[in-house]
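Anyone opening a protein record will find just a pair of labelled lines. A complete record is shown below as an example.
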Amino acid sequence: MTLEVTDIMEILPHRYPMLLVDRIIELEPMKYAVGIKNATFDELFFQGHFPGQPVMPGVLLAEAMAQVGGVALLYPEENRGLIPYFTGIDKLRFRHPVRPGDQVVMRADIEKIKGRMGKVKAQCHIGDMLCAEGEYLFALMPGQKPRK
């Protein structure tokens, strides 16, 4: 199953500039998802991180991988409207920088769910090169109505 960005926006609560997944290319709900992030030079974070040596901030790469896991978790209708909050991140490692023009392929596997708590393992690659990997602990919480 594949999802375009408009489909992703029906599942995740994230919006620009924090929506960091452009497409889901594989999805087995509650098991795994594979997503793509196209890193383009016009993204604001490249302007200041770092001038003359643009690199995607690691925290945003970690968030992008988590969002791919979020799609797998929130795709089932009974989970729509829930928000997967981080409760921990373990073994997060950055292996290779992501630069403008790179297409990052991220895979998130749901390892364990107990009640509303769980664990996701994620990796991202550019081609065959591993860029980052980590384990995410999360709690699925009810969404809140926007404040006025």
In short: The mean pLDDT is 95. The longest strand covers residues 129-142.
